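COMPLEX REQUEST
Ligand: iron/sulfur cluster
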Amino acid sequence: MDDKYLNFDEKRMSIFNELVKRYWNGNLKDVDDLNKLADYIKNEYGFNDSDLPFIRDHIRIAMGQDPKGDEAFKDELDILKSSNSVLQPVVSKLDGPCKQCKNEHCDCCEIGKYETDVYRRLNENISCGYGVSKCDFGALADKIEFMPMIELLRDKVTPVYVTVAPAIVGQFGDDISMGQLRSAFKLLGFKDMIEVALFADILTIKEAYEFNHLVKSEEDFFLTSCCCPIWFNMIKKIYPNIYDYLSPSVSPMIASGRILKTLYEGAKVVFIAPCVAKKAEIKEPGLEGAIDFVINFRELKEIFDALNINLQELQDDDKDQASFGGRLYGRTGGVSFSVKTVVNRLEPTRVIKLKAQKVNGIQDCKKVLDGLYSRIKGDANFIEGMGCVGGCVGGPKTNIDVEKATKKVNEFGEDSFILTPFDNLNVMKILEQFNVKSFQEIMHNDNFEKILSRK
Ligand code: SF4
Ligand code: SF4
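STATUS: Structure written out below.
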């Protein structure tokens, strides 16, 4: 494999960094400026003129657009200014590196064997995005969704909210607080940063009621987690005979977008994710429109770097938005812990107790689902699945290792003054705004139930 293709993910991030810097500072106005950028990349990384189509395509992908092969730059900047979404496919495939690759049984994806399989599964959202990360040669690349939102952030008319995955804690430095992250987002032009864990609190209550309703005998069981699209889509597409046991709830991310857009008319919502799969989830039929763009932790790090945002120097704009349990959704076992707490509070004398099994990593998810598919049920009646090892803290687009990230998520959870979702005043405020008069009414208020469901 030529050196120029090696460690390509870092090169891809440099392309993105240059794009953001140049566009933000007004140095990317026309086709000439785009060609200058392509030449800069060519010289910087030892490419030659024949590689320019490959470089141009990576620039397009970093702008959230599709590759165009041999075509010269034409209307990319006009498209950028007028687009307000990034379209499927989430992952693009480029020619070049595969021809030289010695990895003849390319197993980028844990459940797919060959490159075409990786590509297909990523776009069908049954792979977590490790395939894109493991192919570090530039053959597979997910579109980056930041550039198309820059004009929105600048217009100051449209309120743009950012909702952050619970796994974000500690991803941008040991001493960086969530309050400093909120300040950074406000500097970028966002109206506010909201923890997705707040919406996880609402879904915890919903899933606890669902569990109570559905699990009444030793044979019954309930499949969650609604927050991982990989687990959800594996069940839906590969194990249809157990699909009915799966929680019908949307993920906390989708709930965050739907709720915020209902509360703030005309608002746009951006989600900060640990993986590529979330980019595909927002484009799924029935879920589209809730979230406008997804940026992952790795990309966000590059944005802060390109725009010289030094998090350490920023003020601590802290807010306590979510409960202990809601914040634990960022790591495996968090959903089970949270729902169990609420089930016990709802029905302390329940005969059939919630017995949780947490399963993480695609291979282990597959094993458990194979068993359930063949009707081999273990002791557990609440089975929580997460596509990544360790849960979202182990996502393919995180910045720190999974052990450290788990510790950070646990500590941030313990810091919350809100013990359970029932004690969360922010949840009560949202319910009030939707005219939902009690926690139980979450299940019976048609409007609100619709917002939280995949129907
Ligand atoms: S997609 Fe697979 S075969 Fe192609 S370059 Fe990447 S690792 Fe090699
Ligand atoms: S476990 Fe979390 S990071 Fe991994 S694929 Fe699922 S949602 Fe994404």
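REMARKS: The two ends are 47 Å apart (CA to CA). Residues 92 and 141 are 5 Å apart (CA to CA).
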